[in-house]
Amino acid sequence: MATHKRAYQEIRTKVLALAQTLGSPTTAAVLPQMRADKMVAAPASWTSLWEFEDVLIKSGTNYCFEAMNAVDHAVEAWGIDSVMAVHYPGDYGGDAAGGARIAAERNRLKFTDVPTPTGADKQRPAIDKIVKESPDLVLLSTSPRDTAVLIGQAAARGYRGRFIGSSPSWTKELLGIKTRPAAEAIRTRFLQAAPWKPFATDTPGHAAMRAALGKVDPNDAYTTGWIWSYPLKTVLQKAIDQNRLTRAGLYQTLRNLGAVDYEGMLSTERGAYPGVAATSFRATTLNVPDDNAHTGVRTARDFFTGPTARRHVMTEPCFKAS
């Protein structure tokens, strides 16, 4: 966070806006100065905290609504009775756990909250919990490396339930795991919840992204970075058209932005209203592991909003209530 704050201080008088500010704790650390500067920025994270910030221009579903949709899908598709959220504390894992708790309460499910630290060598207590309680669904809000450990070791010890991972929990390298219990569980009992569809999807936006990138090793970090750029591009173009390409002018343009055309990568109908949680995008896609897919996953369920996310009134970031 200190590095992020120092870097922001170095550039804050030299740039008009930030195309990305990476990470939620790091972005939160510079938010007071960003507000004072009226520095418009695209956050490279999905915490529900951003729904209440009017200098941040967001795309896609936050971790909280994503988790609600994951639980609602599990109820609809598999008839689950119990869910366990295994997650990092804070505004990533805690945000997802808050959404899972809300969805579990609405669906009258048994809910277990299991915070876990980062580190492959620190997952034993969480694995013990999974194996002992054997919930129907484990929602994972961890890194890919810790996801691999949690799934692999829980499966090796006899856990037969299902896993859904928050969007940052996946990387295609997970398909390289050859140990049988882990490989089988990842391929047949894991879904990735995601804010949009993966790299190879057939939309004008995905095609434009692939054409611009040329020959690269496909990675959905590219997909994410490209999508995050659409709202800022729209704000910049409108500010240019209105002859107010200044920091204050950009901020006012953002406040009245309206719809953003994502060229099919997200719904064009979504209104972009910074700082207004009621207008949050709430749809999620679900991906299944696929060895033949460019980024190791393909879409199994298109954009959907479950009843919990559709009806929820967000009055504070979900990790604060988790």
Layout of secondary structure:
Blueprint: H1 2-11, E1 18-22, H2 24-37, E2 41-44, H3 63-78, E3 82-87, H4 93-106, E4 110-115, H5 124-133, E5 137-141, H6 144-156, E6 162-165, H7 180-189, E7 190-194, H8 204-213, H9 220-241, H10 247-255, E8 258-259, E9 271-272, E10 284-289, E11 297-304, H11 307-311, H12 318-321
Parallel strand pairs: 1-2, 3-4, 3-5, 5-6, 6-7
Antiparallel strand pairs: 7-10, 8-9, 10-11
Characterise the protein shown here.
There is one protein chain. The chain has about 325 residues and is α/β, with parallel strands linked by helices. The protein is built from twelve helices and eleven strands. The chain has helices at about 1-10, 25-35, 65-80, 95-105, 125-135, 145-155, 180-190, 205-215, 220-240, 245-255, 305-310, 320; strands spanning about 20, 40-45, 80-85, 110-115, 135-140, 160-165, 190-195, 260, 270, 285-290, 295-305. The strands form three sheets. The protein has a seven-stranded mixed beta sheet, with helices on both faces. A two-stranded parallel sheet has the order 1-2. Strands 8-9 form a two-stranded antiparallel ribbon. Helix 7 (about 180-190) links the parallel strand 6 (about 160-165) and strand 7. Helix 6 (about 145-155) crosses helix 7 (about 180-190).
